[in-house]
Amino acid sequence: MLNAPSLLRHLLCVSLLTSGIAWAANEELDELRASDSNEWQQVKNDKYHHIKTWSKREDGKRIRSFKVEAVMDSSLEAIARATFDFENYPRWYFKMKQSKVLKQVSPTEVYFYQVFSAPPGLPDRDVVVHLNIDPYSPRRGYFRLNIAAAPDYLPPQPGLVRMPGFNMTTTYTPLPESKWKLDVEGYIDPGGTAPTWATNYVQRNAPYQVLLGLQRVSSSEEYTQSKKPMSLKYME
């Protein structure tokens, strides 16, 4: 039989263990509620890199939408050079294996093609992206990239699943000290039969990783010091 001090310690341990289990269960329930919410739920708040991300459930869609806010400590020209260098996206873009221009329609419109690595056991994904650009001007007050999937622009490719959704709007507005505020809102549907929970996990993490990569490359000398002519317009 336990004496009084031992019994007290035993009851305390049981109480702490029970509280821990209840806390963990509540955390899982909160995450489940967040995943089903049609309100924006913050996913990350990286104060060091000045990146915040959110996700939310959209009515009638099986995948969450995402939203990103970030501060870019680069010139708009360097950001545009990194953004328009499509062939080099695999160096920094989350899970991207290939990226190439298909057709430039005008200085503010282009189609490009990308291939993404899928989790083990699933086929890789590809997407045709249609980009329309709103160049920056003092009158407009922002530089905007309007991106939409164009799944029927190119025939299906062997061994790849075509992504039916790759839609987002990226807006840059000027800040003091030559910095730029970036706002992204979008929705990506990888298609195929990937489990929804796995797709949502990627979609909750990919926007943050992409912004980290863009911050890094747009601050590199490759783009800050480049004098190469650009075929796409970022400024009127």
UniProtKB/TrEMBL annotation:
Domain of life the protein comes from: Bacteria
Signal peptide positions on this chain: 1-24
Presence of keyword Signal: yes
InterPro entries tied to this protein: START-like_dom_sf, START_lipid-bd_dom
Keywords, alphabetical: Signal
Domain START span(s) in chain numbering: 21-223
PROSITE patterns linked: START (PS50848)
GO molecular function, one term: lipid binding
Keyword Thylakoid (UniProt): no
Listed name of the protein: START domain-containing protein
